[in-house]
Amino acid sequence: MLPIEAEALSYAAGGVAILQDVSLRIEAGPPLLILGPNGAGKSVLLRLLHGLLRPGRGRITPEAPTRGAMVFQRPVLLRRSVGANIRYPLALAGLPWAERRRRAAAALEEVGLAALADRPARRLSGGEQQRLALARAAALAPPVLFLDEPCASLDPAATRAVEEIIAGIAARGTKIVMTTHDLGQARRLAGEVVFLHRGRVVEAGPARPFFNGPASAEAAAFLQGDLLW
Ligand SMILES: Nc1ncnc2c1ncn2[C@@H]1O[C@H](COP(=O)(O)OP(=O)(O)O)[C@@H](O)[C@H]1O
Ligand SMILES: [Mg+2]
What we know:
- GO terms for molecular function: ATP binding; ATP hydrolysis activity; transmembrane transporter activity.
- The chain is α/β, with parallel strands linked by helices.
- It folds into two domains: about 1-70 and about 140-229, P-loop containing nucleotide triphosphate hydrolases (Rossmann fold, 3-Layer(aba) Sandwich); about 80-140, no CATH class.
- About 35% of the residues lie in helices and about 25% in strands.
- Strands 5-6-7-3-8-9 form a six-stranded mixed β-sheet, with helices on both faces. The chain has a three-stranded antiparallel β-sheet with strand order 2-1-4, with helices on one face.
- Helix 2 packs across helix 3, helix 2 runs parallel beside helix 4 and helix 3 packs across helix 4.
- The longest helix has 16 residues, at about 155-170.
- The protein starts with a strand and ends in a 6-residue tail after the last helix.
- It binds adenosine-5'-diphosphate and magnesium ion.
């Protein structure tokens, strides 16, 4: 699956250009954070990379119906127990019963939901639901995991719990590709960044130099909190 190579992607909707000439390469390594002001095109780019949308122009390799797993801002959970939410996709993936049990138990343990395994998933709090969505994705051990603002509707404590889980998934070798509007979170998690502005990649590279001294005026303004759209 890796590297994923996006070449000169363009995407338009309703005659409006949303992404223009976006090229990037996703390689194994620490998390890649896609940053940029509201409306920059981060969510659309993530959906293109995962395969939920098809680019109008350009191409993404490897070609596949979908690449990796994805977790959304608002988790989509089955009307079943917490444990069943994890085991179901493992069954779809063809894993044998004992392996499904083993992986589901390990994933629930990792996100601190083992005690809630028999609860209806949709009754969990927002933070617990997002941890479950991450556990479900991580149990599949995907080579790459796309996360679209996974903490956008969570409070600070739930956000920190989710960040720890994401760091754990990354440490076990899954490439994280994630959007966030939370710069503190981006600094904590990012190994590399792609900075989008008005549908174009303005900067891309290792996180530390980007945060310490961005090359572009747009990124500098964004990091100072001046560039809001
Ligand atoms: N299906 C769509 N039809 C029309 N416009 C869209 C569609 N999806 C996204 N957009 C527009 O594209 C721009 C980028 O959206 P998005 O990727 O959600 O931004 P971000 O995630 O960076 O905030 C926004 O102006 C949004 O309104
Ligand atoms: Mg978005």
